[in-house]
From TrEMBL:
Residues 29-112 form the Kringle domain. InterPro entries: CUB_dom, Kremen_rcpt, Kringle, Kringle-like, Kringle_CS, Kringle_sf, Sperma_CUB_dom_sf, WSC_carb-bd. This is Kringle-containing protein marking the eye and the nose. PROSITE patterns: CUB (PS01180), KRINGLE_1 (PS00021), KRINGLE_2 (PS50070), WSC (PS51212). Keywords: Disulfide bond, Glycoprotein, Kringle, Membrane, Signal, Transmembrane, Transmembrane helix, Wnt signaling pathway. The chain crosses the membrane at residues 377-399.
Length: 439
C-alpha cells in the first residue's frame, strides 16, 4: 500500500483539484494505456527478482528483433529494454526459455502508467472495489467503461476480466490492496490492444480521461483527446479551460500527438480574448514543448467525419511569477518575438527545449498565425450578445449595399425582413451564417 506522502505527491501530478488517492509518485513515462510509447530502460520483467530481458538484436528466432525492425520501429534497438512493438496490452520482452515453454513475459514497470490510470487493484466482490454501478459488455473498451461511468457522474471507472465495467466514487478502492500491473493484463473484449483488468483484478481510471471538455485549475495536469485511449470520435468539438490564477506562464508539452489529417485540429486560445495562439493538425505538428505567457488558456479540439486517429495527450505546468523568471520571459519575448510566427508555422521537429514565448499584447496580429484566413474579431463573452446584434444589423446593411454579386459566397442578399445571425467559431474567428428565423 502506498504511503500518504506518495499519495499526496501524485495528486499533484495528475490533478490537484480532485481529492482522490492517486497512483505511485513516479514521473510518468507512458501516456498510452498499453505502454506502446514506453522508451525507458527497465531491462527485466520486474524490478523485484524479475527475469532478465534478452537483447532485441539477439532474438532472431522470434518475430521481433532488430533484423526485422532495423529502424527503431516500436522502440526496438540494440538493447534489452521492455517494449511493446506489437500493440499488446503492456510492454514485454523475450526471456531465456522456461521449462514450460514460456519465452516472453510482460514487464512490471511502475513508471509506465499513464496519468489518470490509478492502478491495478484486487477485487473480492462483496462489496466490489468500486461500489457504484456495474455492467458487462463483449465490446468493452477502456473508454466505453469510462464514458458510461462519467455519464453517471462517477469519478472512477474500473475494468475487470476484459468485459466487466464498474463505476464508483468511493476513495477506498484500494482497501483490498493494490496488485502488480502485470495482473491487469487481460485484453479488453472490444479492443485487444488495451488492458481491461484481470481475474479478480480491476484496473482503475479517472473518468476525466477522454472527456470532451473540462475545467482545469490545478498547477499541472494531463489532458487527453476525447475518447482516449480509444481513437477520437467523429464530429467532436471540445473545449478545456486551463486557468491557474497567479501563473505568469503555462508550459505545454504534447507527450502524444497522433492526428493524421489536416482538418482535425488542436488549438490553443487566449482565455481572455479567444485569439487563436496556435493551431496544430496532421500537417502542422506541434513542437514538443512551448509556453504561453498567460494564466488562462483554452484548449480546443475539432474532428471532422473521416480519418480518426489516436489523438493527443498534452501536459501543462503553470509557472508562478518571480523576478528571475520575469527577466527570462521578457528576454525571450524580445529576442524571439520577431520570429515566433515563422517558428510556429515551420518548426515541426520535436524538441525538448522551449522554443518561444507566445505574447498576447492587444496589438498582437493574430491573423498572421497559420491557418487564419478570415480576419479576426474579438468578442468578449459578457458583451457578445450586444455585439452580435449590432453586427448583424451592420452586416445586413453592408450586404445590401455592397454585395449584389455575392454568388460565390455561401450566402446571398436576403429579402427584407429576414434576420441574420452571426455565430462565433473559435477556429475561424467569425463566420457568418444566414439563418432565416421563421416564427
Ligand atoms: Ca478527420
Amino acid at each position: 500500500m502506498l504511503s500518504d506522502k506518495k499519495r499526496e505527491c501524485c495528486q499533484i501530478i495528475w490533478n490537484a483539484a480532485q481529492p482522490a488517492v492517486r497512483g505511485p509518485c513516479l514521473r510518468p513515462q507512458c501516456y498510452t494505456a498499453n505502454g506502446a510509447d514506453y522508451r525507458g530502460t527497465q531491462n527485466q520483467t520486474s524490478q523485484h527478482a524479475g527475469k532478465p530481458c534478452l537483447f532485441w538484436n539477439e532474438t532472431f528466432e522470434h518475430p521481433y528483433n532488430t533484423l526485422k525492425y532495423p529502424n527503431g520501429e516500436g522502440g526496438l534497438g540494440e538493447h534489452n529494454y521492455c517494449r511493446n512493438p506489437d500493440g499488446d496490452v503492456s510492454p514485454w520482452c523475450y526471456i531465456a526459455e522456461h521449462e514450460d515453454g514460456i519465452y516472453w513475459k510482460y514487464c512490471e514497470i511502475p513508471s509506465c502508467r499513464m496519468p489518470g490510470n490509478l492502478g491495478c487493484y484486487k477485487d473480492h466482490g462483496e462489496p466490489p472495489t468500486l461500489t457504484g454501478t456495474s455492467e458487462t459488455s463483449n465490446k468493452l473498451t477502456i473508454q466505453a467503461c469510462i464514458s458510461s461511468c462519467r455519464s453517471q457522474q462517477f469519478k472512477f471507472a474500473g475494468m475487470e476480466s476484459g468485459y466487466a465495467c464498474f463505476c464508483g466514487n468511493n476513495p477506498d478502492y484500494w482497501r483490498y490492496g493494490e496488485a502488480a500491473s502485470t495482473e491487469c493484463n487481460s485484453v479488453c473484449f472490444g479492443d485487444h490492444t488495451q488492458p481491461c483488468g484481470g481475474d479478480g483484478r480491476v484496473i482503475l481510471f479517472d473518468t476525466l480521461i477522454g472527456a470532451c471538455g473540462g475545467n482545469y485549475t490545478s498547477a499541472t495536469a494531463v489532458i487527453y483527446s476525447p475518447d482516449f485511449p480509444d481513437t477520437y470520435g467523429t464530429g467532436k468539438v471540445c473545449y478545456w479551460t486551463i486557468q491557474v490564477p497567479g501563473a505568469s506562464q503555462i508550459l505545454f508539452s504534447f507527450v502524444l500527438f497522433e492526428i493524421k489529417d489536416a482538418t482535425d485540429m488542436v488549438e490553443l486560445l487566449d482565455g481572455y480574448t479567444y485569439h487563436v495562439l496556435a493551431r496544430f493538425n496532421g500537417k502542422n505538428r506541434p513542437p514538443h514543448t512551448f509556453n504561453i505567457s498567460l494564466d488562462f488558456v483554452i484548449l480546443y479540439f475539432f474532428s471532422d467525419e473521416i480519418n480518426q486517429a489516436q489523438g493527443f495527450a498534452i501536459r501543462y505546468r503553470a509557472v508562478k511569477d518571480n523576478v528571475h523568471q520575469n527577466k527570462i520571459a521578457a528576454n525571450q519575448t524580445l529576442s524571439e518575438k520577431r520570429n515566433e510566427h515563422t517558428n510556429f508555422s515551420i518548426n515541426t521537429a520535436r524538441s525538448s527545449k522551449i522554443l518561444y514565448v507566445i505574447t498576447t499584447s492587444p496589438s498582437h496580429p493574430s491573423s498572421s498565425m497559420p491557418g487564419n484566413v478570415i480576419s479576426k474579431w474579438t468578442i468578449y463573452s459578457l458583451t457578445a450578445l450586444l455585439i452580435l446584434s449590432v453586427t448583424a444589423i451592420l452586416a445586413k446593411i453592408f450586404l445590401h449595399v455592397l454585395c449584389t454579386q455575392c454568388g460565390t459566397l455561401h450566402f446571398s442578399v436576403t429579402a427584407a425582413g429576414e434576420i441574420w445571425s452571426i455565430f462565433y467559431r473559435p477556429s475561424t474567428s467569425i463566420s457568418i451564417f444566414k439563418k432565416q428565423l421563421r416564427t
